[in-house]
Structures are given as structure tokens and as C-alpha cells.
Write a structure and sequence with these properties.
The chain is an all-alpha fold. Helices cover about 90% and strands about 0% of the residues. The radius of gyration is 30 Å and the shape is rod-shaped.
Length: about 70
């Protein structure tokens, strides 16, 4: 069995370090995906709420305008 050289040992250590960094990056990306998904849901709910409020406001203004012009 051939003996490992100093370069092989350094390369192995570097590969372990890179593998750990990749695991951390993948974990961070997964967390960001979850966060973006929840923010997207939150914004969609907010848009729906604004649309409902605008419809109610238009209805109220329409009713007040109808009774005001008579």
C-alpha cells in the first residue's frame, strides 16, 4: 500500500472542509426557501385583504353617494 504524501493529506482535509461548507450552504438555502415561501403566502393574504377592503370601501361610497344625490 503506497504511503500518503503530504499533498494527499492536505487535499483530504480540504475536501472535508469543502463538504462541510456545502452541507451548511444547502441547509441555509433550504431555510431561505421556507422563509420565501412563507413570505409569499403572507403577501398573497395581504393582497386579498386589501382587495376586500377596497371592495367594501367602494360599496360604502356607492351607497353614500346614492343616498346623497337623492
Amino acid at each position: 500500500m503506497p504511503r500518503k504524501s503530504n499533498t494527499d493529506i492536505r487535499l483530504s482535509a480540504h475536501e472535508k472542509l469543502c463538504a462541510e461548507r456545502m452541507k451548511q450552504l444547502i441547509k441555509s438555502i433550504d431555510e431561505l426557501k421556507k422563509t420565501v415561501s412563507s413570505l409569499r403566502d403572507f403577501v398573497s393574504k395581504g393582497k386579498g385583504a386589501v382587495a376586500v377592503l377596497m371592495a367594501l370601501g367602494a360599496l360604502v361610497i356607492g351607497v353614500l353617494g346614492y343616498f346623497n344625490f337623492k
